[in-house]
Design a protein that fits this description.
The chain has 442 residues and is α/β, with parallel strands linked by helices. It is built from 16 helices and 13 strands. The radius of gyration is 24 Å and the shape is globular. It starts with 13 loop residues before the first helix and ends in a 6-residue tail after the last helix. The structure holds pyridoxal-5'-phosphate.
Length: 442
């Protein structure tokens, strides 16, 4: 089996290889390089202690197929994370298996579906507001549900009259995120949950915006039945570029029997994986989810303890600070206060010849990652800004000044926006070329 001819590899010196890759990595952008106000994605700083813990040798060199008695420490971490998430969400049962927010949504909807199956009720519809993240209707549709979309009211909140109009015994549930994707708190959430429960329907909480409410309120208090959290957003594990993430699902007491198996439990002496969950929907991922992401999130939770409440306070304060300072230059989707993020409507600038996409690209020239754009869909030319709690006042002030500068440029030199970004390693990219001519070799 020995090769007869030498491998056709160039013999590179280690130092040259290191330089090549370092140079490449320097061309990339990350939170350690600059402000990253990507709305809805909660790009907070990932503290190094999370990495330290996830890289502890005793956690790295174990295998999920090992017996419970050999991995008591790992199971203890998972158990205690489950308990922490119960505390934070107010829920009674947790599965750590789902590997993303959308995966959590799918898991949650599967639980809802099985719950009604066991009850002998056939409910075929799920209600989703028009401000929802696209994964919400997608997850429900993947479970076989028909999606009913309801229009938001003029404040950008759930329109209760619209909700009542579409509600009947065929509705399994309502999917909501609170605060919603406009960064607004659904003030009538108790009324909404009452209406849904009186109809025998369940409420699903998309926890992607949890960074706004930690320790101040929780989905249980708001009347939700199933929740997913995005550990990679709220609990500071690295994300972007497709993962890995973790989207644990938390449920009320009545739905605990439907969770994916196994769940990690503690019998007073040892931790063990319980596969005997009565009505379990089964497994939703290989082994037990993304363990190293779970360690990072648990480390983050322990680092803050009951100070998690302040994380949310500061995230909300930072968003309001930026929003109020940009009101003169930009149209903002709401007139009052926001939660942890807010949405700019760029139509005014578009009329002057500069789209939201072009303004977002221009931000890159100032070493700022573009915010989320064209989401939520209900605001035209939208730009969604989420600073998170990680940033200090200097960074926020710099962003405000840059945005004001950009507004001025729109007034004075709109044509220049054709050529932005101009300082990045890759300039203005062809938005569709890569999709049409996929080339992974160069
Ligand atoms: C990010 C996000 C999701 C999906 O989460 P992933 O982890 O990206 O799958 C769902 N809803 C909202 C509002 C989000 O911001």
């Amino acid at each position: 089996m020995k090769r007869k001819t030498p491998l056709n590899f160039k013999n590179n010196e280690e130092l040259e290889v290191m330089r090549k890759y370092k140079k490449r990595s320097d061309e990339n952008f990350c939170i350690e390089k600059g402000f990253y106000p990507l709305g809805s994605c909660t790009m907070k700083y990932n503290p190094r202690i999370n990495e330290y813990c996830a890289n502890l040798e005793k956690l790295l060199n174990i295998h999920p197929s090992q017996k419970d008695e050999e991995v008591q420490g790992a199971l203890e971490i998972m158990y205690k994370l489950q308990e922490s998430l119960k505390e934070i969400t107010g829920m009674s049962g947790v599965s750590l298996q789902p590997c993303a927010g959308a995966h959590g949504e799918l898991t949650g909807m599967m639980i809802i579906k099985k719950y009604f199956e066991k009850k002998g009720e056939e409910r075929k519809k799920v209600i989703v507001p028009d401000s929802a993240h696209g994964t919400n209707p997608m997850s429900a549709a993947m479970c076989g549900y028909e999606i009913i979309q309801i229009k938001s009211n003029e404040k950008g909140l759930v329109n209760i009259e619209e909700l009542k109009k579409v509600l009947d015994k065929n509705v399994a549930g309502l999917m909501l995120t609170n605060p919603n994707t406009l960064g607004l708190f659904e003030e009538e959430i108790l009324e909404i949950s009452k209406i849904m429960h009186e109809n025998g329907s369940l409420l699903y909480y998309d926890g992607a915006n949890f960074n706004a409410i930690m320790g101040h309120t929780n989905p249980k208090k708001m009347g939700f039945d199933v929740v997913h959290l995005n550990l990679h957003k709220t609990f500071s594990t690295p994300h972007g570029g497709g993962g890995p993430g973790a989207g644990p699902v938390c449920v009320i007491e009545e739905l605990k029997d439907y969770l994916p198996n196994p769940i990690v439990e503690f019998d007073g002496e040892k931790y063990y994986r319980n596969y005997k969950i009565k009505n379990s929907i089964g497994k939703v991922s290989t082994f037990f989810g993304n363990f190293s992401v779970l360690i990072r999130a648990y480390t983050y939770i322990l680092s803050y303890g009951n100070q998690l409440r302040n994380v949310s306070s500061k995230a909300v304060l930072n968003a309001n600070y930026i929003m109020e300072n940009l009101r003169n230059e930009f149209d903002i989707a709401n007139s009052g206060k926001c939660m942890h993020e807010f949405v700019i409507c760029g139509e005014k600038q578009k009329e002057k010849g500069v789209s939201t996409l072009q303004m977002a690209k221009r931000l890159m020239d100032f070493d700022i990652h573009p915010p989320t754009i064209y989401f939520p869909l209900i605001i035209h030319e939208s730009m969604m800004i989420e600073p998170t709690e990680s940033e200090n006042k200097e960074t926020l002030d710099n962003f405000i000044n840059v945005m004001k500068e950009i507004a001025k440029e729109v007034d004075e030199n709109p044509v220049n926006f054709e050529n932005y970004p101009s300082k990045t390693p890759i300039k203005k990219a062809d938005e569709t070329l890569a999709a049409r001519n996929l080339n992974l070799r160069n």
